[in-house]
Amino acid sequence: MLGLNYPCVMGVLNVTPDSFSDGGRFLSTEQALQQARKMIAYGAAIIDIGGESTRPGAAVVDEQLELDRVVPVIEAISAEFEIPISIDSSKPGVMRAAVAAGAVLINDVRALQAEGALATAVELQTPVCLMHMQGDPRSMQLEPHYVDVVVEVTQFLAARVAECVAAGLKQEMLLVDPGFGFGKTTAQNVELLANLRQLRRIGCPVLIGISRKSTLGAIAGRDVDDRLAASIAAAVVAVLQGADIIRAHDVKETVDAIRVARSLGEAGREK
Ligand code: 7PM
Question: Which CATH architecture has domain 8-270?
């Protein structure tokens, strides 16, 4: 899909003032463009642009504010590069404006379950990454509960794929993502990553975002600004478990690591 060679890296470009990873440093379009140029030079295959923080406990962002943040950045990057751009949003209006500005992938942490989102994706005929989340960003980390996290996440994603196909999206346009950190305890995140291969049975490329997340901090005993090595280790495991796209902040290191993982093990991929 989108002419990608797997496994590859999706570079994270947050244009939110409260993003924990970027601390509001990429607020202006020019700063965002600079960051995108670096990620592309380092080998990112996709740039994921988000204007709404989905951090646990985060407030919902007003649509106009989200549009003002993301549209100029998408326009600037697509004017300069051919690289596929994804829009990290759950809002139909943002999806529409982002695609008009040049985005070619919708990355929706709510898996097109918001009002009007599925109909909009069908109308746009744009590829979509469907992510699993238990609860909503405000409350998801309060009391995550599963009988079997791997089975439940897989069943949820398979059901969303089926609903999207029934609504008029082609299966080839869909990606699935277990939503590492989205309504999961450390133990549940570990179980998901260690069994990521199960998600391949759905029949869609698998994307995962593990970069700098708190589960890695909990395991390694590191703060958010000191999780690069932990993130790289997790990215390599994800690739060996058959992940197709790794969503990451540290593009250079992640690209190098997955290239090595792939060449050493054929990355455990089915031929
Ligand atoms: C604060 C906390 C800001 C967490 C941002 C985040 C994913 C995603 C995010 C993911 C897909 C982050 C997250 N995570 N989209 N968007 N998969 N598809 O760490 O895991 O960037 S936001």
Answer: Alpha-Beta Barrel (3.20)
